[in-house]
Amino acid sequence: MRSFARSVKEEVLQAERTDREYKAELAGIFQFLSSISISNRGLTMVIRTENPEISRFVMKMLKKYYDVTIETSIVRKMKLNKNKVYLLRVMNHTKEILEDLGLWTEEGLNSHPAKAYVSNRETSRSYLAGCFLASGSVNDPRKTDYHLEISANREEQGRFIMRAMKKIGITGKMIPRRNQFVVYIKSVDVINDFLVHIGATDCAMQYADVRIQRDIYNNYTRLENCATANVVKTIRSGREQVEAIERLKRSGRFEKLDVKYQETAELRLRYPEESLQDLADKYEEETGIAITKSGMKHRLEKIVELSGNNTERSE
């Protein structure tokens, strides 16, 4: 079954962008998935990914913007789930590509593009889309733990991602995890906004819809539980009050009660499981005297109190 995160990435890859935005997206992908090496062939770059859609996207963009020769291969991981790994080896113009994407420095491949390269909201969105494609994940909205994250290799890289998020109004947090620095979002509304920003609008709508449906169900369940608890409480209170009235009758103290308490007690005996409000309504129907729910509650509590001592008559 395809995961929700996989669906998000597939939609992001289909998003329409300008040339500069596509390059910002490539920069985000390359900083996580690429490595460079020097051989007798010169400077080469290898892009590794387990996602075939990302591999096809990168190849398409490289051929669209750069006159490159690419060698492709597929290897299978020997550990864990033995997933396929798709390799793209860029055989020429590596330095020119990295310079164009703001990823090349005098020391070699930089961990993030130059600040000027993601200077506005549009390129920041696309850059973050590339980061998410390469190293991001998001929980299925049907789970109760809302969580989206991008795992960075270096602290500096993580902080750069957080700064890019701020440019689009998103606040992320970062924690170290094993040998990585994880930039994460826990708020469901912020996750939804992030998905919209990176181009996963349909998935964002699905995310919001599932969340709303679950919230409605949870609210309904809470209300139902409250209603059940109230019914149980009413029945338990009614049983306690009936037992108190019967004690008063057995001891001969019932006839000494004030008339209003006797009327209330007889009403409770006839309707042992009715709510206080229903008892108050029935009392008014039978006696013509109005009484509030709190007034009925006070009378019944007084009856229970009198049943437990030797008071002869209530005030």
Structural class: alpha+beta
- Which runs of at least 5 residues are low in confidence (pLDDT < 50)? 310-315
What CATH architecture of the largest domain would you give?
A: Roll
Major β-sheet strand ordering: 1-2-4-3
The fold-level CATH name of the largest domain is Endonuclease I-creI
Shape: rod-shaped
**SS field, number of helical segments:** 11
Q: What is the highest CATH level, the class of the largest domain?
A: Alpha Beta
Q: What kind of sheet is the major sheet?
A: 4 strands, antiparallel
Mean pLDDT: 87
Distance between the termini: 73 Å
Helix content: 55-70%
What's the helix-strand series?
A: HHEEHEEHEEHEEHEEHHHHH
Alpha carbon gyration radius: 35 Å
Determine the CATH superfamily of the largest domain. Homing endonucleases
Strand content: 15-25%
| Quantity of strands, as a count | 10
Q: What's the number of structural domains?
A: 2
Query: Which assembly state applies to the chains in this document?
Result: single chain
Descriptive report:
This protein has 315 residues and is an alpha+beta fold. It has two domains: 4-199, Homing endonucleases (Endonuclease I-creI); 218-307, no CATH class. Helices cover 55% and strands 16% of the residues. The protein has eleven helices and ten strands. The strands form three sheets. Strands 1-2-4-3 form a four-stranded antiparallel β-sheet. A hairpin with a 2-residue loop joins strand 1 and strand 2. Helix 1 (4-14) packs antiparallel against helix 8, helix 2 packs parallel to helix 5 and helix 5 packs across helix 6. The longest helix is centred in the C-terminal third of the chain and has 50 residues, at 201-250. The model is unreliable at 310-315 (pLDDT under 50).
